[in-house]
């Protein structure tokens, strides 16, 4: 352990979370090639095979699963130590983990979740991978399925619907072109859908879901987006009906040991209120009255 840079283990966790090198490399500020070399070096130093490598990305071997479990617990412990050390010098920190699109919508209404006079800090952790709370890596998470972990508490917040969207001013040819994330980054069902159903029509791919929205707004083609994103963007229109097979529930998840902390409870209650008030919007029923257009 002492001869292996701790950064290798941090990168290993990132590769596991992203399911490949690109996202992990971007997160750590290195190239995918460098990330790949570091993972090979980690395997050589440990004398164990950690990954199954394929065109679809990186998946863990049984030994990789063991290391991931050990490191997840270790990182959770270190984070709690950091929190403990900082308690005297800084307000309490509440960590909120969610996906790209919930982060996008909530950030536009952040005043409903975090207020100037709150006696705590809020940290937003954004990613497509499942929000991890079992080892208290985060305090609050939004998931698309009910947690199976016995030490987590969950509250259902409604359902999320998806549909294809295009720019209102898209040229005719662009209305037949599809935009998707790369296969390696297609973690969620809605991200995989174009590759499974419209592979021959995909003209543009991006490594991040957020970039799909930029491309659609620019009139480059059609992309599958959550209705709560597409229906609130005045630049976009639906390019087809709701895709029923992509609909899924949405859960607010807390760790049992943290859900009675006053700061965590306050943020969780505000978040639940925010999302329940927009239940029809999330379900694709176009009930939002404060529609807005991204101009960034």
TrEMBL record:
GO terms for MF: DNA-binding transcription factor activity; sequence-specific DNA binding
The entry's keywords: DNA-binding, Transcription, Transcription regulation
PROSITE patterns: HTH_LYSR (PS50931)
Biological-process GO terms, alphabetical: DNA-templated transcription
DNA-binding keyword on record: yes
HTH lysR-type domain residues: 10-61
Protein name (database record): LysR family transcriptional regulator
Organism: Martelella lutilitoris
